[in-house]
Design brief:
Rossmann fold, globular, 5-stranded parallel beta sheet, 2 domains, binds phosphoric acid mono(formamide)ester, 15% strand, 4-stranded parallel beta sheet, alpha/beta
Amino acid sequence: MQTGLKGRDLITTQEWTKDEIDTVLDLAFDLKRKQAVGEPHAYLRDKVLAMLFFFSSTRTRASFEAGMAQLGGHAMFMESRTTQISHGDTATEIGEILGRYSAGIAIRQVDWGIGNAYERAVAEASRVPVLNMQCEMYHPHQILADLMTIIEKKGDPRGKTINVSYAYASSYQKPLSVPQSLILLATRFGMNVRLTRPPEFKLMPEIVAQAEENAKRSKGSFEIVEDFDEGFRGADVVYAKSWGAMLTTHDAEESARIAQQYTDWITDERRMALANDDAIYMHPLPADRNIEVTDGVIDGPHSVVFDQAENRLHAQKAVMALTM
Ligand code: CP
């Protein structure tokens, strides 16, 4: 177990050692047990988390806010549009000033080419840790909750096959952050990671290279498949969700037009039957129901999406208690 994490930013799990991530998971399971039996765990009494959102959220906001209350502190909700950011507050000013009011700053900024740099600029200026609530590259707290869920449902993740797949959605061009964080973390933990996606929906090459390197070190594996059905075969974990064609075009309408070729990339009962009998279906939510995944699958016996959403709370409480 690695302690001494006070003051550490969490922008991507790739910047934390495996021992440090093991510590987060260990504490997350402990906090989940404490919550279940009503054992108080006010580790952050009187502390404030400043939460700054540039983009909408249901689960992330609610779980960070509930988590801070359960840890004895307070979460301060801020939306960029109701701040003075559009009138000139810089990332340095946000880091300097919010860092003097709070014990941690959590940010969601998913704009392509902007979000990650913004969070890092705030972190550079801040005296307190910055926690990434999702940028255009990474969604580390989602993926910690996902790994916790995989361990709960499947046991030791080493040697298990996870299909990290593109699926079609019509609602909007979603960031690459979930599949990118997922291939990075699953390869750290010795999983056989299969990235399934059409040729226009590539992930960032430097992240794919990191995932390949991770897999070598952990004795897991990493492969890329372009056939949607093939991705399901023999999978223990099916994690199929949409993302935009950001590396093919920066134009959202063009990305949506490209995606039109793949409207049949929907997770349905026939495809789930290609996976192992006891495979689990995961999705970070929100899902485009009956477009990205059928009701039969997301509400069916393989689906663990509600436990997965719950684990956001426990994983984030662990990160906050360790870093703030
Ligand atoms: N999965 C996730 O991050 O959900 P929200 O966008 O609702 O926060």
